[in-house]
């Protein structure tokens, strides 16, 4: 009797396990995992780590509001050491783990390698396609000659930012002699090219008195470059430098008492504001898609993030990516990369600072841009200080999306 009862119990348990298995699979399928591939080691590690925290904060917000319905978004980090080769290795790891959504932003060289690898993977594996959300790699080629159906850029590309920057610089008569200093990789070359094209067109009287390209994330002393800028007689420096390369550049200029204005893309990135301090007041300008001085939907998240991490929330592309992803999931009722990509094409929604649109022709997000200057916090022009410096960004102009919009040469190949 005991033996028969034992056999019945085991059989019942086995049947229950078999019955439960599909339910477990269904529950797991309701989690959308996004691979975050960026540096967590080396000189740019603080930038990578800060970006991941920002993505996690937005994911928590999206999940708490059930913006993706029954689906939850989970961020998974991978250290690429800022290397294209390492990035391809961790991309394979992510795919092998069943992750079908990828995001990356630090380094256009890395982004181009990922874009190409994902394109080839999807051609070979139509049942295991992968979608790439680019949150900060801004080489224009990625949405022009090298555009891909599987790639969506949520930052303004470098040409768009230079369009906004030079539109503002056009009305600054004090700018006469400009020096171009950039990192020696795809993005840095694009910044230099765009400045050389747009400045003469808008201000023919401005002279470009010098230009330099330096190794990415390798220079530890920018004093020689500061000496060259001084010797050239520049009153303005245009730089696309980011992370440690901008922090050390600004610090070297401050140490040498170099009296020039810096027009930047990434002066708000972690570590740079603290390095600037009071000496940079009125001298450092930034072009970005974020402001804490105007009423916006992400302001509370910014304040909560700062309180929790004692770090700045400034990468608003993280907000736009996960909110658009959530909207696409609700729209399609699923989380298949192909359906999500088709839903994202042409999608419009209200971003934190105005309407945004994912342009269908090239998958380049169109959004408002700001030009701001580093200034002492006064509670009015500068409502919040940055990195506990007592200083922050005062908005000088807000540019509507059409001002920075660029034509595209993208001839996109779409899946049948």
Task: Describe the overall structure.
With 416 residues, the chain is of the alpha/beta class. The chain folds into two domains: 30-156 and 311-366, Rossmann fold (3-Layer(aba) Sandwich), CATH 3.40.50; 159-288 and 368-404, 3-Layer(aba) Sandwich (Rossmann fold), CATH 3.40.50. The protein contains 13 helices and 15 strands. The protein has helices at residues 2-29, 45-64, 84-96, 108-124, 158-169, 186-202, 223-231, 244-255, 272-276, 299-309, 317-332, 337-344, 401-404, and strands at 31-38, 72-79, 101-104, 131-134, 151-153, 177-183, 207-214, 236-239, 261-264, 284-288, 348-351, 354-358, 365-366, 369-376, 391-399. A seven-stranded mixed β-sheet has the order 7-6-8-9-10-14-15, with helices on both faces. A hairpin with a 6-residue loop joins strand 12 (354-358) and strand 13. The chain is globular. The N and C termini lie far apart (63 Å).
What is the annotated CATH architecture of the largest domain?
A: 3-Layer(aba) Sandwich
The domain count comes to: 2
Distance between the termini: 63 Å
- Helix content percent band: 40-55%
Task: Using brief descriptors, characterize the structure shown.
seven-stranded mixed sheet, Rossmann fold, 15 strands, 13 helices, five-stranded parallel sheet, disordered N terminus, alpha/beta
Spell out the blueprint of helices and strands.
Elements: H1 2-29, E1 31-38, H2 45-64, E2 72-79, H3 84-96, E3 101-104, H4 108-124, E4 131-134, E5 151-153, H5 158-169, E6 177-183, H6 186-202, E7 207-214, H7 223-231, E8 236-239, H8 244-255, E9 261-264, H9 272-276, E10 284-288, H10 299-309, H11 317-332, H12 337-344, E11 348-351, E12 354-358, E13 365-366, E14 369-376, E15 391-399, H13 401-404
Parallel strand pairs: 1-2, 1-3, 3-4, 4-5, 6-7, 6-8, 8-9, 9-10
Antiparallel strand pairs: 10-14, 11-12, 12-13, 14-15
Helix pairs in contact: 2-11, 3-4, 5-6, 11-12
